[in-house]
Specification:
Chain A is of the alpha/beta class and 240 residues long. Chain A contains ten helices and ten strands. Classes of the chains: A alpha/beta (240), B mainly alpha (317).
């Protein structure tokens, strides 16, 4: 479904993403890991259209979307969340989903909105003003709900679990596990917690300094000496 | 309920009481017409600001283009005034097309770019003498006709026309704001990237708001041309046609629909009837002070201030 080929994104002299190739299938949950500054979010931005790649290709559903504007990519089925939640200001939770559905999916379906609200545990908060009256867990859930309302084929989740307390994290995990099946959506998820990734993903891709250094099953990848080195900054692989 | 009732009262006063009681007072009626012209521009300006998130200093261009298009069509092609006025709006809309490239700019950059554009139109009106008559201007622009046995060229007739035009625009504004587009536009204000990643074509939506705003301002400009029967570039493209509406909109509350209208009528009438008699020259000084006070004490303007006090009284009673 998503195929990224030799993608590079540069900011001035800095190459944030360096010739990265990866793919995500419709029925896959893929983890994207790497230390801070590895280029994970930049990769998300490039795929969703917020950052302009300097070279490479982004193929989505067999269409080259490299030049397609942001909103067109959303309509095609590329959904994403932001690490720092970005609720739509001045709108209620329900209106947030309404806009996402109307413009992202093309038509309004109240029943689907109810279903998404229910699924993301936001049903009781539907009439609250999203930007002002939600707690962090709810804001993170709204990020997911908004993306779901656009009827995506690919959902890119940027550290949706970060900053949540343990119980919230557990509930969110359960939701994410179900999400993939229930909404028939392929998932690419950025997450720091190795346990979460192992638990959730069939495959994991590791970036370090903008380069892809591993791509495979979690238990394999997390044993890879180079991956361990990238995380610890030293050669601990030998001591294991 | 309460808002509905007060709107009906307002309509009754505007269409009934005012023409009946003040209709013979030409001075006050002309002040009211001028106030409504400014109010109409203020409404269109606020629509662009509130829904599109754009601050424009270029609305005088739309006003002027609308005025010239309508005047020329009636003078040279004999187009009926009503159609010419609408085409004046279309002319202003077309003028706004050249502003599309700057839509991607934000904040002060957009404001500056559109100000520069406005000047281009003024220069065209001055230099294209074969069509516009240059700086000598156009005179004997046809007045409003007599219809249904009522002479619309008089003060009361003109007042009723501009009042209706402005109220129709307010209604359109309301419909747009309540639509899906309106909701998306509201969201775009503080979270443009977030709205774009869920499929909203923000540039298109902003462009549509620019078109609507330009059209409205053009129609108001056209009205004014037929009302005063005379045009020259310095008058039609004067910067006052945008600064006064901005003052009115901010004073009344630019994020409300009626705020700009009420602001315009309040500001203009108080200025002309009270301040001008106190200080014949430089009376705008007080206006400036009043605006500053309003921004300091109620940044969202007069209408939200009134609403809050009504609510307080209601709660207290």
């Amino acid at each position: 479904m998503l195929r990224v080929e030799e993608l590079s994104v540069c900011f001035g002299g800095l190459t944030a993403v360096n010739k990265v190739s990866l793919s995500v299938g419709t029925d896959e949950v893929v983890g994207l890991v790497g230390p801070n500054g590895a280029g994970k979010t930049t990769l998300f931005n490039a795929v969703s259209g917020l950052a302009r790649p300097s070279s490479g290709r982004i193929i989505f559903d067999s269409v080259d979307v490299l030049r397609a504007p942001l909103h067109r990519r959303a309509k095609m089925g590329i959904g994403r969340t932001f690490q720092i939640p970005q609720p739509l200001h001045e709108l209620t939770v329900r209106e947030n989903l309404l806009v996402a559905q109307r413009f992202g999916a093309g038509q309004v379906d109240q029943q689907k909105i109810d279903e998404i609200l229910e699924f993301t545990n936001l049903a009781p908060k539907g009439d609250r003003e999203a930007a002002k009256e939600l707690a962090l867990t709810e804001l993170k859930a709204l990020e997911v709900a908004k993306a779901l309302a656009t009827n995506p084929k690919l959902l890119m989740l940027d550290e949706v679990l970060a900053g949540l307390e343990t119980s919230g994290k557990r509930r969110f995990m359960a939701m994410l596990k179900e999400l993939h099946q229930k909404f028939a959506v392929g998932i690419l998820i950025i997450e720091h917690d190795i346990e979460t990734i192992s638990n959730l993903c069939q495959r994991v891709v590791v970036l370090n300094f903008g380069k892809l250094i591993a791509d495979g099953a979690p238990d394999q990848v997390f044993r890879d000496p180079e991956v361990i080195k990238s995380y610890t900054g030293a050669d601990h692989a030998g001591s294991r | 309920m309460k808002t509905n009732a007060s709107i009906w009262v307002l309509l009754l006063v505007a269409y009934g009481a005012i023409p009946l009681t003040l209709g013979s007072n030409h001075y006050v009626m002309s002040l009211l017409v001028a106030a409504l012209v400014i109010g109409g521009i203020a409404l269109a300006w606020a629509l662009l600001g509130n829904l599109g998130g754009m601050v424009s200093f270029g609305h005088s261009a739309f006003f002027g283009v609308g005025a010239y298009v309508s005047a020329l069509l009636t003078l040279k092609a004999g187009t009926p005034i009503v159609i010419a006025m609408l085409l004046g709006g279309v002319g202003a809309l077309l003028a706004s097309l050249v502003m599309l490239p700057v839509l991607r700019l934000r904040g002060p950059y957009f404001a500056l770019a559109i100000l520069a554009y406005a000047h281009i139109f003024k220069i065209i009106a001055t230099e294209w003498t074969a069509v516009t008559g240059g700086s000598a201007g156009l005179s004997s622009i046809p007045r409003f006709p007599t219809a249904f046995g009522f002479d619309f060229s008089g003060k009361v007739g003109s007042y009723l026309i501009i009042l209706s035009v402005v109220l129709i625009f307010a209604l359109c504004y309301r419909l747009i704001r309540a639509s899906d587009y309106g909701i998306a536009l509201r969201a775009m204000h503080d979270s443009e990237d977030a709205t774009r990643v869920i499929g909203v074509n923000s540039v298109l939506l902003k462009a549509l708001m620019l078109f609507v705003s330009a059209f409205m301002t053009g129609v108001i400009g056209a009205f004014n041309a037929h009302y005063i029967n005379f045009l020259e570039p310095d008058y039609a493209f004067n910067g006052l046609w945008v600064t006064l509406p901005i003052v009115a909109a901010i004073f009344g509350g630019y994020r409300t629909i009626l705020g700009p209208l009420i602001g315009a009528v309040t500001v203009y009438l108080i200025d002309q009837l009270v301040f001008k008699s106190l200080i014949p020259y430089g009376h705008q000084l007080i206006l400036g002070a009043l605006l500053v006070a309003m921004i300091l004490f109620s940044p969202s303007g007069l209408v939200p201030l009134l609403r809050a006090s009504v609510r307080r009284n209601h709660a207290a009673g």
